[in-house]
Each structure stands twice: as C-alpha cells, then as structure tokens.
Design a protein that fits this description.
CATH architecture of the largest domain: Alpha-Beta Barrel
Bound molecules: 2-succinylbenzoate, magnesium ion
Shape: globular
Number of domains: 2
Strand order of the largest sheet: 5-6-7-8-9-10-11
Number of helices: 13
Oligomer: single chain
Radius of gyration: 20 Å
Number of strands: 15
CATH superfamily of the largest domain: Enolase-like C-terminal domain
CATH topology of the largest domain: TIM Barrel
Helix content: 25-40%
Order of helices and strands: EEEHHHHEEHEHEHEHEHEHHEHEEEHE
Structural class: alpha/beta
Length: 368
C-alpha cells in the first residue's frame, strides 16, 4: 500500500446546545478532517484536537502543523502492507497523538474499503451492537440538569455521565440520585480537583456512582493512585492515558480500575488495541470516550467499540444530540434500547457527505 495524496480540511460546526466542562464552554466545534488517498481508495479520519490546549496539549493548529510538516513527509512514498504499520512509521514523532490518530484511522478506513470489508471486522471487533451512554455538560440549574437527564433516559441511553467541577458537584449528584435512584450514573471532573480535595470527593460515594472519571491532574498518575486508595468508587482515567505504557503504569500503580479509550488521545487503532488488549489481560474494563466528534470521528468510535473488552457503555451517541445536520450518511442513530447497530458497509460504513463538508470547510490543503 502507498498513500498518493492527503487532503486536510478544517470544518466548523455549531453545537445544538453549548457544552460546558470544568475547562470551558464550547458553542462551535472546529475540527480537522483528513482524507487519505491510498492506492486509489479514499479513507477518512478526524482529529479530535480542540481549538485550545485545555483538554490536552494539542490544538487544531498543532494537528495541522504536525500532519503537514512531519506525518505526511514520514509517510509519503512509503510502502507498507497494512495500516497496522502506521503507528510505528510515525514513532519518531513524539506525542501529537491526535494528529497521528487522524491519519492512521483514515488509512485503516482505506484498507478496509480496499478489502471490501467493514472496518470493525478488519480491527478484530466482535460486538454487533454497542451500548451507549451520554455525557452531559455542566448546567446552570438542577432543574435543567434533571430535564436533560429525563430526555436522554427517554431516548434509551443506558448510563448518564455528568460533568462536575468544584462548586458544581455534590448538589447536582445528590439531586439526580434523589430523582433517579436506580440509573447507572457517573461523573467526569476533567482534572478539576487536587489530591487535597479527597475528603470532598469522598462525599460523592454516598450516591453509588459507577465511577469517577479523571478527577485529578491531566498527567498525574501518582496522585490518582493515592486517591484510589482512599475511595471505594472506581476511578476511570481519561486524560492521563496516552499510550500502552501509561496504561500499564496506571494499572500497576493502582491509579484506576477502568480506562476510557479515545482513538485520538492514544494515537489511533494500533495504540488503542494495545491498551485494550493490556486491559483485557488485567481485567480492567474499558469504554469508548467521545470528543464531540463529527460523523467521521463518530463512525470510527463505533468501529473501535466493537472490540471485545469495550464492556461498559461509551460516550458514543446519535449525531442529532450535537448537530442539526451531520457530515455523514446515514447519520448515527441510537435504538430505543440505547444501542448503536454497527454498520456492515465497507470501511467506516458511513458515507461522507461532500456537499455538506465543502459548505462547512474553512480551509483546505492537499498534500502530494
Ligand atoms: O472528558 O470525555 C471527556 C468532550 C470534550 C472533551 C472531553 C470530554 C468530552 C465529553 C463529550 O465528555 C463526550 C461526547 O462526545 O459525547
Ligand atoms: Mg473525560
């Protein structure tokens, strides 16, 4: 296999409703889409980097820079047998996993399309239907939060995750638990707390949460291990896990007992599968996180979620929760049971809508 051409596009999509986390409020999502022409077949990927370096160090700009100036020169004119070699071909670029994940996943899509098989099969997936939960941003009032949760439960979603931050934690969780005593509930702090806050976080244990996601520093495994020793509630790591090595360190330290895998954060399918396989051997359940993706990234998240050890509901949801109109056809839909049926078409199994993509594009560059 050989890549003839890569097209980078930046698109901007307004969110149906603003999404607030402990690190900021987002109303308009900028994202980088990548189209890789591999032996005449087009594969698609999405970089999940945000506008600013607030969830992770990468941004749309850094992803563009790394893809154009380093990843493309490293891959151009290279012969390879399968997309599984791309991670290694990019190994001399340190970090920048979201840039790597974008191009790597596009090449996986192209390879599956060349073989005429769905991407989920090519990566070794087994689940034909994946379980879905929702991630709900920080809301102004408890009433607003309860209304939102009610709506998501009515749509079928199997678990509720709410974003928390200091001052917006105990009361919303307590309020939700009173109203919904039996739902599967979890929280995500996006690194808003410090180890000294442990006794405050311990108060959350009264509400039997499934897990607390990434309470402490975005790159601080040690403090999470300290915190996990003080809590009975499982800690799930998101921001902290960039590679298999981080996952191994986290598990050995006892820093978490669940891991959220995001294709972008870990640099694509090869790295995601390494983490998945390690967690499976160590009996650490994993689930697929989301980054407010367009349909392209969403389709990849669905494929990734078919791997066996993705055994908890992920943050992979219907297109319409975020977008009035998505960039793929058909749009991602969720069944009344809160699942997504994995498509059977070749590659990601959804077709990019070129009309819509062109309309949303704010810049474009083709690399040859
Ligand atoms: O921490 O999981 C996170 C969105 C942006 C950045 C970080 C996170 C999130 C989400 C949204 O939780 C999940 C989704 O795409 O629905
Ligand atoms: Mg998270």
């Amino acid at each position: 296999m050989k890549i003839q051409r890569v097209t980078l596009r930046e698109i901007a999509m307004p969110l149906v409703t603003p999404f607030e986390t402990s690190f900021g409020r987002l109303t308009n999502r900028r994202m980088l889409l990548i189209q890789a022409e591999v032996d005449g077949v087009s594969g698609w990927g999405e970089s999940v980097a945000g506008e600013g370096p607030f969830y992770a160090p990468e941004t749309v700009e850094t992803a563009w820079h790394i893809l154009r100036d380093f990843a493309w020169p490293a891959l151009k004119d290279r012969e390879f047998d399968s997309a599984s070699e791309i991670w290694e071909l990019l190994a001399n670029i340190r970090g920048h996993n979201m840039a790597k994940g974008a191009i790597e996943s596009a090449i996986w899509d192209a390879e599956a399309k060349q073989k005429g098989i769905p991407l989920w099969k090519l990566i070794g997936g087994v689940h034909r239907e994946i379980a879905c939960g929702v991630s709900i941003g920080i809301k102004g009032t408890l009433e607003e939060l309860i209304d939102t949760v009610e709506r998501e439960l009515a749509a079928g979603y199997q678990r509720i995750k709410i974003k928390i931050k200091p001052g917006k934690d105990i009361l919303p969780v307590e309020g939700l638990r009173q109203r919904f005593p039996r739902i599967r509930l979890m929280v995500d702090a996006n690194s808003a707390y410090r180890l000294e806050d442990w006794s405050h976080l311990k108060r959350l244990e009264a509400y039997y949460l499934m897990m607390i996601e990434q309470p402490l520093g975005w790159d601080d495994l040690y403090s999470h291990a300290e915190l996990q020793r003080k809590l009975d509630t499982p800690i799930c790591l998101d921001e902290c896990i960039h590679t298999e090595e981080h996952a191994r360190a986290a598990i050995e330290l006892g820093a978490c007992s669940i891991i959220n895998i995001k294709l972008g954060r870990v640099g694509g399918y090869t790295s995601a599968r390494q983490i998945h396989d390690l967690c499976q051997r160590r009996q650490i359940p994993v689930w697929c996180g989301g980054m407010l993706e367009s349909g392209i990234g969403r389709a990849h998240n669905i494929a990734l979620s078919t791997l066996e050890n993705f055994s908890l509901p992920g943050d992979v949801t219907a297109s319409r929760r975020y977008w009035t109109e998505d960039v793929i056809e058909p749009e991602v839909e969720v069944t009344p049971e809160g699942t997504i049926r994995v498509p059977n078409g070749p590659g990601i199994g959804f077709t990019p809508r070129m009309d819509r993509i062109e309309k949303l594009t704010t810049r474009k560059e083709t690399l040859t």
